[in-house]
Design a protein that fits this description.
By secondary structure, this protein is an alpha+beta fold. It is built from twelve helices and twelve strands. β3 and β4 form a beta hairpin. α10 packs across α12. The longest helix has 33 residues.
Amino acid sequence: MAVTIENTAPCRKKLRVEVDAERVAGTRAEILQEFRKFAAIPGFRPGKAPEPMVEKRYAGQIDEELRKRLIPESYRETLNEQKLKVVGYPQIESVEYKHGSALVYTAAVDTAPEFALPDYKSIPVKKKAVTVKEEEINKTIDSLREQQAEFVAVEGRALQTGDFAVINYTGVADGKPISELVPDAKEFGENKDFWLLISADSFLPGFCDQLIGANAGEKRQVLIDFPADFPQKTLMGKKATFFVDVTALKEKKLPEVNDEFAKKVGLENVEKLKDAVRKSLLTEAESQQDAELRRQIADHLLGRVEFELPESLVKQETRSIVYDVVRENSLRGATKEQLEEKKDEIFGFATQSAKGRLRTSFILEAIAEAEQIKVEEAEVEQRIAQLAQRARTTPEKLKAQLAEKNGLGEIEEQILVGKTLDFLVANAKIETVTET
């Protein structure tokens, strides 16, 4: 088998592979015999038709099977023999074959970048001393109190800031129901049994201010000027009238921090509650501390080595990041129009992030190879079991799903990156600093 390699761009090569005529003939003879076993030729039972007749009838299919078999086989052999680290799939550009001759094809491939590793032991990093302050504990306990809060009916007074109003409302703008103007966001036009926290920044600008002083059972008209930058383009700058029926007033009552409250959240008393919160905050702080050390190490490595990246991987990673950014912003309420306006900014951010991620991944992979850091099958199984528990499914089902989507390699890569970063942290030169 003859192979020639041409560098066409950084991290991109063109392979010309020639599979010799003798091997081609041998493989073709094997395929011919396979076809002969099942050939449906009038006058002959399967397996009994003469080879020339089978050859004549199925020549095109035999040649197609020959290409399907020999190209992948010879491609894998080429990668092994030439010690090429290819990323992604090859792009077969041409195939030349005539009966009785060699099979020749060319393939464009992206290869992993080649670079010299910088010094990666004793990387200087700074670690903040982990402390948990009393105000942090109290803040967490206040969050627990919020979860256990009760809403009681307001009696003997009118609606005021900090209360919740339970309302029914409909809105009109330009003489039409707002629900018709923005059918994809009807909540801006009408709602029933809507719980509204009375504060300056709740719901629509100025809406709550016009409800203060209302009593349960009262009806009010609320006049709204939609701002020029309102998320719903149809309502930008419009004036609207809302017809509001205040059905109930509610006041949030937080439980006192006592032993009874501690028992409600599953602990014996207030002291045990504070201890549990302190430990939880300490664990979270240590996790953030570890993530910060890893970030510093990655930044250090990125700043000391530069290399070109396979264009196909950059495009693939960029698409993935763009998708995540768009999805996250959509969940936060960004409209298609707003996302379209920022598409260049989003794409620029995604491209830069993609290159950083890929360079970090290649550097860590090279360090793992140099240090002979491996991923054991048991580690993959353990990670799958953890993911399955979170997804409320069985490890077997999740593993099958990952296998269908070629996701097992990604799991293995995540574990390898984690182990390599653990190694780098363990060998880093860590300076502990205290916050002032």
